[in-house]
Amino acid sequence: MRLIGIGVGPGDPEHLTLKALRALKEADRVFVPSLGRAAEIVSEHVECTPLDFAMSDAASRDEHWDKAGALIAEVARAGTAAFATIGDPNVYSTFTYIAHTVRALLPDVTIETVPGITAMQDLASRTGTVLAEGEERLALVPYTAGDDKLREALASFDTVIVYKGGRHLPDVLRAVDEAGREPVYGEELGRAKQTLVAPDGRAPYFSTVIAPPRRAGRGGRL
């Protein structure tokens, strides 16, 4: 009786780890969000079952989580069910809601996760951006928490990463600029439509902004 959440990275198929691939192949059944990046990556290696999710309103979200959880629980009840998710299953992932639902149906289920590369790591690598060094502090902020939360983080932390800010990208970039920082931007990371240049207006939901600190020489923040 087992459920495993598997991170497959933000979009680059080569970011699927060896451990993730082994877990996918050993599972009795693999579930993925339908029409998503995880499905594209996973379907190249194993057969997978797509699940529909809705984020439009609370009632729709709960209904889809319940339906997905029930399907996954039936597999987990007699073996190992896997749920593949973009990025990491423990960072702003649908898997956490699925795991909660399955646990309610199967209190004795074993829940495990396989870590995946996150968008902030991918973007940092592609742009040569150091996320943190020495005594620097790092904050990950979903812009959905509000512009004030982003500005608080920019005033308090050395490096700030912003997720979920696509629709409000001009506001995100304005806050970063007013904090005296140079933004690092990326969208569709690892995919054919990848760009590291911020658009003038709105951006996709899956876009990432890094606001690193200004550093003075080697070891300046030790």
Characteristics:
single chain; 222 residues; alpha/beta; Cobalt-precorrin-4 Transmethylase, domain 1; Methyltransferase, Cobalt-precorrin-4 Transmethylase, Domain 2; 2 domains; five-stranded parallel beta sheet; four-stranded mixed beta sheet; 35% helix; elongated; methyltransferase
Descriptive overview:
- By secondary structure, the chain is an alpha/beta fold.
- It folds into 2 domains: 2-114, 3-Layer(aba) Sandwich (Cobalt-precorrin-4 Transmethylase, domain 1), CATH 3.40.1010.10; 119-211, Tetrapyrrole methylase, C-terminal domain (Methyltransferase, Cobalt-precorrin-4 Transmethylase, Domain 2, 2-Layer Sandwich).
- Helix content is 35%, strand content 20%.
- The protein is built from 7 helices and 9 strands.
- It has helices spanning 18-26, 37-42, 58-78, 94-105, 119-127, 147-156, 169-178, and strands at residues 2-7, 29-33, 49-51, 80-85, 110-114, 138-142, 159-163, 184-187, 207-211.
- It has a 5-stranded parallel beta sheet with strand order 3-2-4-1-5, with helices on both faces. A 4-stranded mixed beta sheet has the order 6-7-9-8, sandwiched between helices.
- Strand 2 (29-33), helix 2 and strand 3 (49-51) form a beta-alpha-beta unit.
- Helix 3 crosses helix 4 (94-105) and helix 6 packs parallel to helix 7.
- The N and C termini lie far apart (47 Å).
- InterPro entries: 4pyrrol_Mease, 4pyrrol_Methylase_sf, 4pyrrole_Mease_sub1, 4pyrrole_Mease_sub2, CobI/CbiL, CobI/CbiL/CobIJ_dom.
- Belongs to the precorrin methyltransferase family.
- Pfam families: TP_methylase.
- Keywords: Cobalamin biosynthesis, Methyltransferase, S-adenosyl-L-methionine, Transferase.
- GO terms for molecular function: precorrin-2 C20-methyltransferase activity.
